[in-house]
Amino acid sequence: DLQSSTSGEFSGLGLEIGIEDGYIKVISPIDGSPAVAAGLQTGDIILKLDSISLKGVSLNEAVSKMRGPKGTKILLTIGRAGESRPLEITVVRDVISIASVRHRILEDGFGYIRIAQFQNKTGESVEKALLSLKDKSNLRGIVLDLRNNPGGILKSSIAVTDLFLSGGKVVYTVGRLTDSSNEYFANSTDLSEGIPLVVLINGGSASASEIVAGALQDHSRAVIMGTRSFGKGSVQSILHISEERAIKLTTALYFTPKGRSIQAEGIKPDITVDRAKVTTLIEKGRISEKNLAGHLGEKSSKTEKSEDPSDS
Q1: Considering 218, 284, 302, 310, which one is annotated as catalytic?
Q2: Start-to-end C-alpha separation, the chain
Q3: Span 28-82, pLDDT tens digits
Q4: Which residue out of 232, 261, 300, 306 is catalytically annotated?
Q5: For residues 114 and 198, what is the distance between their CA atoms, to the nearest angstrom?
Q6: Closest to 97 (Cα-Cα) out of 149, 34, 159
Q7: Which of 207, 268, 274, 305 is catalytic?
Q8: For this structure, is 207 an active site residue?
Q9: Three-state secondary structure of 124-184
C-alpha cells in the first residue's frame, strides 16, 4: 500500500486520510479522483462506510474498506463543519492515477504549477514544467499550488524547493539518534531566475508540502497565501524485514531553515485567504435614474435617415 501511494496508481476513492478523535478524517481529496467528483472536502469526518461505523477503526482497516474493484459503489456518511446533520455521499470506485504535476499559462507573463502529491519523479516533472512555462511566455510571476497536497517523498520536496533557491538550507531533521538528524541544502543555481513566486496552501497541505512552503517563506523567496497548513512535521523511516514486509517508524521531526517546527503547528501564510464561494449578489431597493420623476427617456445614438423611393 505504501509503495502504491508513492508510485501514483491504485484503485479506490482517491482520499488522503488520518485519524482525529477516533474517527477517520479527510486530509485531502486527490485531484481528479471519484472523491473530488462526489464533493468530498478537506476536514470531512467519515462516520460510516455503507452501514459500518468507523468509530475506533484503524487507518489500515479504513483504507482496505475504501479500496475495491473499479465501478463498485460505496456510501459514505460524512460529518461536515457547518452542516446540522450528517451527509450521505455515494462514491464510485475507480483506478486512481495521480498526476503529480500539471502546469499552464494563466495569462500572459504568469505561469501556474500544480503539485498534487510528491512522488519519486515530482522534482523532475516540476523542472520540466518550469522550463516549459519559460519557453512559452516571458514569465513575470509563478503560482505554485500546494493546496490539498498530502506530501510524499522528502527528496522530491527538496528537489522542488531547490528549483527556486540559489543555495541555503531547505530543511533539517532532529531525532533521538545521531543518524536521524540531517540537514538538506539547495544548490547554488536558481532555475527560476528569481521570478516572483506565490505559493498556495491550505489545511490539506501536509508534510512535504509544508517543507517547500516553509523553506521558501524562511528565505523570503515566495509569498505564502491561503490558510494554515496541516502540521505534519514528523519523519517516517521504513525498516525492511523481508521483501514483502516492513516497519514504518516515526524517528525525527522536521524544522524549517529558521528552526520552526512544523509538527502540529503547520505553516502560517503571509496572506490569509479563507476558502470562499464567489456568487452574484442581486441588489434590492437601489434607485437608478429611471426611477426618478421627470427623467429623460432613452434615446438611440443612431439617427434614422428616411429614404425617398424616387431616388435611385
Answers
A1: 218
A2: 86
A3: 888 888 999 999 998 999 999 998 999 988 888 998 899 989 999 999 999 999 8
A4: 232
A5: 12
A6: 34
A7: 207
A8: yes
A9: HHHHHHHHHHHHHCCCCEEEEECCCCCCECHHHHHHHHHCCCCCCEEEEEEECCHHHCEEE
